[in-house]
Write a structure and sequence with these properties.
205 residues, alpha/beta, two-stranded parallel sheet, 6 helices, 7 strands, globular
Length: 205
C-alpha cells in the first residue's frame, strides 16, 4: 500500500495496533514467511499504524467508523461501518465463500466469540458486506454474514465428532465442497486436533 499510494497514512484502532505488535516477534515473522514465501519483504514489518482519532475518518464525503469486535479469525479485530452507503468492510470477520481460518480459533469458546462478532456486524444492518477473504467474482451481500456464522457452527459440530485432523478435514470438505482455500482448512483442522490432544479428558473443547 505504501508503494502504491506514496505518502498514505496507515491508521487503526488502538486495540488492533496492540495486537499487530505481537506479530512482529521473530517466531511470527518466520510463520508468515513460511505461509507466504517470497511475498512479504522485511520492510513491511517496519510499517507501524497510527491510532485513529475517535475511530473515524472521512473519505470522499463519507464517514468510516472503525468498530472493535474482539476475536474473529484472530484477536482484536475490527470492521469499518459506512452508514451513508449501508456498507461494512469486515476484514477477516466475514468470509465470502472461502474456507475460514480456524488455526487461531481451535477452542469452542474462540469460535463462539467469532459468532458473536458476526452478530455485532449484523446489528448494523448493512446491505453491502465486503470481506477480505473473497471468492473472485463473489457477491458482497449481507447473506455472507449468516453464511459465515453457519460455517463456524458446522465446523464446531464436526470438530466435536472427529478424532483426527484428517477426519475433520474430510467432513468439512463434505459439507462445503465448493469453498476455496483448502490449505487454510487443513491448517485449521490441524490446530483443532492439536488442541484436543492437549486437553485433559475432563475438559470440554
Amino acid at each position: 500500500m505504501k508503494r502504491r499510494f506514496p505518502g498514505v497514512e496507515i491508521v487503526s484502532t488502538q486495540k488492533s495496533i496492540d495486537h499487530m505488535a505481537t506479530q512482529l516477534m521473530p517466531e511470527f515473522r518466520s510463520f508468515w514467511h513460511d505461509l507466504f514465501p517470497g511475498q512479504i519483504d522485511e520492510e513491511s514489518f517496519q510499517i507501524l499504524a497510527k491510532p485513529l482519532e475517535d475511530n473515524k475518518f472521512t473519505l470522499e464525503g463519507h464517514t468510516f467508523e472503525a468498530i472493535d469486535v474482539g476475536h474473529s479469525d484472530t484477536d482484536e479485530t475490527t470492521f469499518l461501518h459506512v452508514p451513508t452507503l449501508k456498507m461494512v468492510v469486515t476484514g477477516d470477520i466475514v468470509y465470502n465463500d472461502v474456507h475460514m481460518w480456524m488455526a487461531e480459533s481451535p477452542s469452542q469458546s474462540q469460535r463462539d466469540a467469532w459468532v458473536q462478532s458476526l452478530y455485532k456486524v449484523a446489528s448494523y444492518q448493512p446491505e453491502i458486506v465486503i470481506g477480505s477473504h473473497h471468492r473472485p467474482g463473489g457477491v458482497d451481500g449481507a447473506f455472507n454474514i449468516e453464511a459465515s456464522k453457519q460455517y463456524i457452527k458446522t465446523f464446531s459440530t464436526l470438530a466435536q465428532a472427529s478424532e483426527s485432523a484428517e477426519e475433520l478435514y474430510n467432513k468439512v470438505l463434505g459439507a462445503y465442497p465448493n469453498r476455496i482455500g483448502r490449505l487454510v482448512l487443513w491448517l485449521g483442522c490441524q490446530a483443532v486436533s492439536s488442541a484436543k490432544n492437549r486437553l485433559n479428558p475432563r475438559d470440554e473443547l
